[in-house]
Amino acid sequence: MKIPYVDISAQYCSIKYEILKEVEDVLASGQVILGEVVNNFEESFAALCHTKYAVGVANGTDALMLSMKALGIGEGDEVLTVPNSFIATASSIVLVGAQPVFVDVGDDFNIDPDKIERAITSKTKAIIPVHLTGRPADLNPILNIANKYGLSVIEDAAQAARAEYEKQRVGSFGATGCFSFHPLKNFNAFGDGGAITTNDIKLYQKLLKLRNHGLRNRDECEFWGYNSRLDAIQAAILNVKLKYLEKWVNRRRKIAFIYQEQLKQLVHVPVDKPFEKAVYHTFIIQADDRDELQKYLAKKGVNTKIHYPIPIHLQNSAMGLGYKKGDFPHVEKQSLRILSIPVYPELSDEQIEYIINSIKAFYAG
């Protein structure tokens, strides 16, 4: 059996004609930049995230950058985040002129609240907790620390659309929530796209201008801005997919629960805490013999990934930040043990059983 790590075409085939109709309507309207379709999506996505506002942007990286710009973060400032995320979390900080300051993570792969305060300096302006793997970071202590030191919280929710913390949706806790709709995300477009959520009307109004060259209207530019608008075609596709997101998330969670029950005696599996509802953008197991297991599964036709094999603080791009191997022991240990196995909702029961049996066969020798 051949099982890809993701199968974007399978999802498309299930809603093909709905998507084609909406795309055709956008093309026929001639309104392909911003407009009613984007507005409708923004309203629906804000409602999904339990926020007052949402701003569609070109991608998740821009969502982070524009959030920092709107909050006045720039040259000479420091922003706390984690070194085990995708590179964009840190690069967005660098690209606004600030410096990323890393904090180690806990067993849930998310920022360890107990390690945050020791990283705060007079230059610290914000914390970017990443809801990695679609699992919410422990937000209450993070928000308490932020309030204590007067810091902004910017949620990196790129992998976590519809995830919940204390029965509240991620993206609704911080000054902003930043989402990516990259095709590999749990809520995805068929190209790049992103959104920023907020409950702050002043931030919302500023973000609307920042994403569109700083324009107040067609003829007046209030400040230097960016060209970072969510395409109307992608918004139309996302409007269709919104109707299915709950079903897809429930399927991901069902698959995750099966993995947890069947594999817990063989490898380390993630388990929801009582106060969280993960969406399992990725299902990451941990094993001391990770590399051998990955090779074995590949021979069995099961494609897997590692998210991520090289922590950000050990990347060449981060050399100037002054970190070294050993600075973040939890992240570094996890990077040697983590393995992402398929968890997309289109997986059949037969495929799930095959993946489980293949892992069991590896450990059976």
Structural overview:
The strands form three sheets. The chain has a seven-stranded mixed beta sheet, sandwiched between helices. By secondary structure, it is α/β, with parallel strands linked by helices. 45% of the residues are buried. It is 38% helix and 13% strand. The mean pLDDT is 98. The chain is globular, with a radius of gyration of 21 Å. It has twelve helices and twelve strands. It has two domains: 8-242, Type I PLP-dependent aspartate aminotransferase-like (Major domain) (Aspartate Aminotransferase, domain 2, 3-Layer(aba) Sandwich); 245-364, Aspartate Aminotransferase, domain 1 (Alpha-Beta Complex), CATH 3.90.1150.
Name its key features.
alpha/beta; 2 domains; Aspartate Aminotransferase, domain 2; 13% strand; globular; 38% helix; 365 residues; 3-stranded antiparallel β-sheet; Aspartate Aminotransferase, domain 1; 12 strands; 7-stranded mixed β-sheet; 12 helices
- Taken as a percent bin, the fraction of beta residues is 5-15%
State the share of residues found in helices, binned by percent.
Answer: 25-40%
Biggest sheet record: 7 strands, mixed
Query: What is the number of independent domains?
Result: 2
Report the average pLDDT across residues. 98
Shape: globular
Q: In the CATH hierarchy, what is the superfamily of the largest domain?
A: Type I PLP-dependent aspartate aminotransferase-like (Major domain)
Q: Reading side by side through the largest sheet, how are the strands ordered?
A: 1-9-8-5-4-2-3
N/C terminus separation? 20 Å
User: Which structural class do you get from the secondary structure elements?
Assistant: alpha/beta
> How many DSSP-defined strands?
12
Quote the CATH topology of the largest domain: Aspartate Aminotransferase, domain 2
What count of helical segments does DSSP give?
12
Order of helices and strands: HHHEHEHEEHEEEEEHHHEEHHEH
Radius of gyration: 21 Å
CATH class descriptor of the largest domain: Alpha Beta
CATH architecture of the largest domain: 3-Layer(aba) Sandwich
Could you list the spans in which at least 5 consecutive residues all have pLDDT below 50? none
